[in-house]
Input
Amino acid sequence: MADLAKLVDELSALTVIEAAELSKMLEEKWGVSAAAPVAAAAAPGAAAAAAPAEEQTEFNVILAGAGDKKINVIKEVRAITGLGLKEAKDLVEGAPKAVKEGVSKDEAAKIKKQLEEAGATVEVK
Output
């Protein structure tokens, strides 16, 4: 059992690139595909190594609509993005558009809350 725990620790320390390479090596060695459910059952190490690659770490905050309080939404967009008045107004009027891209889950939730409190409709993808 100690060897299995050590193996799990080593697999957990792999980077995404290393996990993908390991998956490829296991597919070649055993003649299976990690995409098939049978392969995941036959090769649990490959499935565990590939799992971290699927977790989303970057999110895009999309302004779907300004709602009734467009001026408040423009103010919030300016505060969040640092855009000038004209650029923020163009972004709000051109909805749906991305307000911020590639942000963390916490930051995306904070931005969404700010914009929704101002009266906007927001999506996080």
Remarks:
- The radius of gyration is 22 Å.
- The CA atoms of residues 59 and 106 lie 10 Å apart.
- The chain has a mean pLDDT of 78.
- DSSP finds seven helices and three strands in the chain.
